[in-house]
Amino acid sequence: MESLEALVAHIQGLSGSPEERAHLHGLLKQADGDSLRAHAAALVPFLAQLSPAAHSLGYLYLLEACVTSGANLSEFGGGDFLVTVADFLTSCSTDQIRLAPDKFLNVCRVLKDQVMQLNTPIRGIAPLRVAVRKIQASPEQLTPVHADYLLLCLLAKQYKAGLSVLEDDIFEVDQPKDLFLYCYYGGMIYIGLKKFAKALELLHNAVTAPMSSLNAIAVEAYKKYILVSLIQNGQVPSFPKYTSATAQRNLKNHAQIYVELSTCYGNGRYTELETFIESNAASFQSDNNLGLVKQVLSSMYKRNIQRLTQTYLTLSLEDIARSVQLDTPRDAEMHVLRMIEDGEIHATINQKDGMVSFHEDPEQYKSVEMVDHIDSSIQRLTALSKKLASIDENMACDPAYLLKTGRDRGGRFDYDDFDNAPHKYF
Amino acid sequence: MDVEGEVPASAAAAVANGLGGGSEASPAPFSAEQLDVEAYSSQYSGRTRLARLLFVADRCGIEAMQLEALRMAYDDIKKGEDVQLHRDVALKINGRLGPRYGLDQAWVDAVSRRAEQRKEKLENELNGYRTNLIKESIRMGYNDIGDFFYAHGQLSDAFKSYIRTRDYCTTSKHIVQMCMNVILVSIELGQFTHVTNYVSKAEQTPDSLDPIIVAKLRAAAGLANLAQKKYKVAARKFVETGIELGNNYSEVIAPQDVAVYGALCALASFDRSDLKSKVIDNINFRNFLELVPEVRELVNDFYASRYGSCLGHLEKLKANLLLDIHLHEHVETLYRDIRHKAIIQYTLPFISVDLNTMATAFMTSVSMLEKELAALITENKIQARIDSHNKILYARHADQRNTTFQRVLQTGNEFERDVKSMLLRANLLKHEYIQRTGPRKM
User: Fold this and answer.
1) pTM of the full predicted structure?
2) Does A315 contact B at CB distance below 8 Å?
């Protein structure tokens, strides 16, 4: 066990080229452990000697020893320790830290805890965002840092900051818990930004992920899933075939009042829904869903008005008020006006006659923007198809797979084996 | 009831035209006038007559008619041997018809005693036959027991006995006889799935059947489908019923019933071409329709788009139809369907329709009509939009090009979403994901 000074000297000396770093890595691993942590307090001045960018690996080890030593971090360096950590995260070198990923994750975790303890989540956002990009092996990989980052964004109400991370599609997941947290927090961020369609996607993934036993995150995600479905589509779809059996059996039991809410919504009567919500307000509040539930309530009016556009060309405001169960034609006018402004319906209000004329969707699909949109969609989907095809090919060549299917079918091959694309899209 | 004089005359003429002989001239009960109980019940025989009389008594709400029906039922039951029914009727009459129409305990006891004796005798005979293993005798034995139970109102026992004869049937004539018995009991029990089964069984016998039997089977099948709310199939069966049916199936159904049921179901479920070919131009069914001229008028009006008079006829018939045991629960549905069809057919040829004229044609107010139209549009049965300000209905044809674009974009989005989550799930499974049960609350 070398002394600290010698260790620091090694770090400074051996951070030049990859081979040296490999050697350094070996040394550090040897030196690692509780003994290093015991000297945590003494490490701080040494950290000042090292540069986070050039000596990332060594810095990381020492830093990690400090933060996991269990000592109160606010005592370190007079409360600026957070800054040190943030600095490190921002300026460290990607290759070096990839040699010790779990230590890196520990550091990030501690940062998040510290920031939450100090009740200043916003301080953690910038460093963690950089950290996410650095630790990811590919843009499609999910790391624990994602979930922490999204949590901080939510707490700091910086929803837009979360968007940059959410826009990447995730295809690789190591830890299931990360996925659930990611989907749940991501869904909440999209809800905050009122992008209900994307929120629905993420929550749907959380609800339908394979799980052998129920977890609380999935239950909470399911509750929000019901509410967002009602707002976006007016109904809650039933579980698709690929949902795990555990989820199908148990989720509804844990979200009983939400299921009742959705049946009440389906009946289409505003006053009933309102009374139901009021009587259960306490339980909605305890789940922190009351705001969302109120949005469900107002979405009911919207849905009823939208149904009217399908049936009528013009309709008087009194008739609208009557069929949507509003109190006065003035209310009806306000609702319709708001919906026109939000672009949810196409109509004009004639105040003199008290009539609303509904129009068809003016989109003619002839503009340049529309062509661009379609074109980019096509390209995106073609890329996705290719990816799907390649994954399928890989799996078909996998020896374990061939062994299993070969055994089942006795080695015969039918025409179906040569057909790759999903039939649904024909 | 002073209209009695008129109705039989015209109906008798109609019957002479169509049926040409057969049993007594039965006046058409399904006319607009109030139901003549006696004429109505004279069309039927056996247990269905009793059932119908009792049903009319329960539902009609007019004291005079009720008492008339109960009186006739009482007399008929006295001629039979069903003790339980006797008790029921006596209870219902409740002394209103005088002392002669009360519970006759002496008669009840006598009949019960006779029944016991006969039952013992039949059972002994049957046991005898069973030990002798003569198929034909066993079959006849079971048949007799079945008939006995039927006469005494023990329908499920009768059913079981008839079913038992199946194993001992040797010729197709036996099979047909068994099927007819079973069908009869099942109809009364209300078990219409059995009816359908046995009708198909009877129709599948290798020998060709007597046309009367064929007609009976068709009528029974129609009745079963009607009860199961399969109106289109029921209509088809009824219009295919041969006129040979005549009054031969009076223990189940009268030819007027075939006409009415068939016409109503056809109006509610057939499309225009079927209506023309199978009902209006169908010579066979025309004979039935002659028996109920109002219904014939109704069908012709509907086809000729005289909806006002058609719906008027329907309204007049409604009261009497509600007294029919097989039809009463379907009257509302059938009427609603016919009305909807009329409305849809009315709007089909036009680009724009003035709601005022339409309301007078359908004898309703503009606001009611608007509500009905809105409901039909929401169910996508009419492709139109209502201009509530000017009260005009405009036909609307969806723009194919736009809808195609919309659908394409939507399919693209769904594909993307589904494939992405599928890849994610595949990845999760690939890592042989086993999820630890975490702590209860996060």
Assistant:
1) 0.68
2) yes
